[in-house]
Amino acid sequence: MLEELSLNVLDIAMNSLSAGARRVEVSVVESHRHDFLILRVRDNGRGMDAATLTRVLNQRTTGKQSRKKNIGLGLAMLRQTCEMCDGHFHVRSAPEQGTSVTASMRLSHIDRPPLGDLNSTILSLCAANDDVDVRLKYRTDQETFNFSSQEGKPHEPRRTQETERKSSTTSRAA
Amino acid sequence: MNLEELKKLKEKAQRQVALRDGNKKYRVVFSMGTSGIAAGAREIMTTMLDEIDKRGLDDVEVAVTGEIGLVDAEPMIRIEEANGEKVTYARVNAADARKIVTEHLEKGKVVEGLAVGKVKE
After folding, report:
1. Where residue B114 sits, what CATH number does that domain have?
2. Which of B7, B8, B17 best tests the A interface by mutation, with the highest count of A CBs <10 A?
3. Architecture of domain A5-173 in CATH?
4. ipTM of the complex in this document
5. Sign of the C-alpha dihedral, residues B23, B29, B33, B38?
6. Taking the CA atoms of chain B, what radius of gyration do you get in angstroms?
């Protein structure tokens, strides 16, 4: 079991990267008023067909079929956590249509793991692949925060020493 | 987790993304499969990024890989040099991660005690 929900998010998002996603969107909605927590990881990677989807959701059948074997374990673990915490778990995916994983749980449930260090999760994702647009939407009852790793890229440079140094090293990738 | 932290994250991410491209002397590959993550690969990665950033090493690029198969040896890091030499470090903790940056990436010396596989091609 992963100790923090943000580690689950990282795990799922890493699979998005290996599925060739160009955009990975993590959204976290934390509502004390309605007492729920929703995590969603959505990507535009190559997606899965129905058979693969059934297989990866079933913990017991994950095995040596393919290199993607560990997708199954990761998703199954998160599903277990959701069900344990009065929540729901849903995966929507189709070939070439990307994948969307939604996990919800009751915020005040005693077994709900802490969200943990979501910062490090997003940072690791950004560092793992520069060309992928990693987005984070974080919403609470009062506030909303949006982050995108592609904002502030060389095409809209702020003229400081910092960005000048950076654009000289990153422009090749653009 | 609060919004202040998230704002800091923005700046930090932009700086660290600069670590990630081109033909650098060193390529650091983190094993980020489920088992790696469960063993603490995320903290190892952020620690190393932090140390690389602090020391201003710009001849390093970072990448990730999925499961390697050596689940009990996680967290693992592989360092690939431009000349084809590869060194794998296993069961790395935060202190080891910093040591690998200062010894291997900065001074070019393999940290012998931590390396498990060294392939010369």
Report:
1. 3.40.30.10
2. B17
3. 2-Layer Sandwich (3.30)
4. 0.77
5. negative
6. 14
Residue B31 C-alpha, separation from nearest chain A C-alpha, in angstroms: 11
Which DSSP string corresponds to chain A? Answer: --SSHHHHHHHHHHHHHHTT-SEEEEEEEEETTTTEEEEEEEE-S----HHHHHHHH-GGG-SSS-TTHHHHHHHHHHHHHHHHTT--EEEEE-TTS-EEEEEEE-TT-TTPPP---HHHHHHHHHHH-TTSEEEEEEEESS-EEEEETTTT-TTS---SHHHHHHHHHHGGG-
pLDDT digits (tens, 9 = 90+) for B10-43: 777 666 555 555 567 888 899 888 888 988 899 9
Number of domains in chain B: 1
The answer to whether the Cβ–Cβ distance between A170 and B17 falls below 8 Å is yes
Residue type, B19: L
Edge-to-edge strand ranges of the sheet holding B86-89? B60-65, B26-31, B77-81, B86-89, B115-119
Beta carbons of A106 and A112 less than 8 angstroms apart: yes
Q: Is residue B6 part of a domain?
A: no
Whether pTM > 0.80 for this model: the answer is no
Domain that includes residue B84, residue range = 16-119
Structural element, H or E, at residue B7: helix B3-17
Q: Coil, strand, or helix at residue B121?
A: coil
Neighboring chain A residues of B8 at a CB cutoff of 8 Å: 119
B51 domain residue, yes or no: yes
Whether B104 has a pLDDT exceeding 50, the answer reads: yes
